[in-house]
Amino acid sequence: MVGVKVIGNDSEFQPELADTGSRLAVVKFTMAGCRPCVRISPAFNMLSNKYPHVIFLEVDVHVCQATAAANNISATPTFLFFRNKVRVDLYQGADASGLEEKIKQHVENDPGSNEDSDIPKGYLLITMSFNQPVKLFSMKLLSSDFAQAPKCVKIFINLPRSMDFDDAERSEATQTLDLAEEDFKDDGLIPLRYVKFQNVQSVTMFVKNNQGDEETTKINYLTFIGTPVQATNMNDFKRVVGKKGESH
């Protein structure tokens, strides 16, 4: 799909995201009357044509309040990056060049965007950024097909630049995991070395192979569990959906 797909209501968002499959999806969260949103809109449309292998979606936080709340949108414009329905990155602000640079980082590591790619089977590289520094103590992974579930996983934190597969292969990880079937149970949590994850601003996860030596690694759900380094002051948040006192 070339161009920006506007999400008309909350019920459309998850099906549209599911349809993107393993391709990178960039979701712009916008708001009527938001001047920075208007300013970056032409560039966002241009990028959707420049990168035809990337899916571009637009969500108005007033029209799709449940979607905005579920994704913890606190300011606009906010751009969330997804692959396989998993959120892998975030970008905020109306700097078009910065947004394109972020897209380039993910496209370079996206085997689906290059038909001549020599990436070994099973490889997967995911980067997640946090809105504030956090302490992490565990993660949760789910895969609908255990044969395609990650096996050897290297986790890096606070990298100064984007990492490619060669970098991930040869670099020393913050922690390396060898996952087994019990790690993917519904009630299973994968412990992290808490002392090494005390001030985390971003996490890069490199999957080296999967359980069944399959061509493709599949992740249906990924989340990290932890706490903010400092207590959150709710008065610091910018309200972009609903009214004071409302819950979603």
TrEMBL record:
Residues 68-244 form the PITH domain. It comes from the Eukaryota. Gene3D superfamilies: PITH domain. The keyword Acetylation does not apply. InterPro entries: Galactose-bd-like_sf, PITH_dom, PITH_dom_sf, Thioredoxin-like_sf, Thioredoxin_domain. The keyword Disulfide bond applies. GO terms for cellular component: cytoplasm. It holds the Pfam family PITH. Keywords: Disulfide bond, Redox-active center. This is PITH domain-containing protein. The gene is LOC112259481.
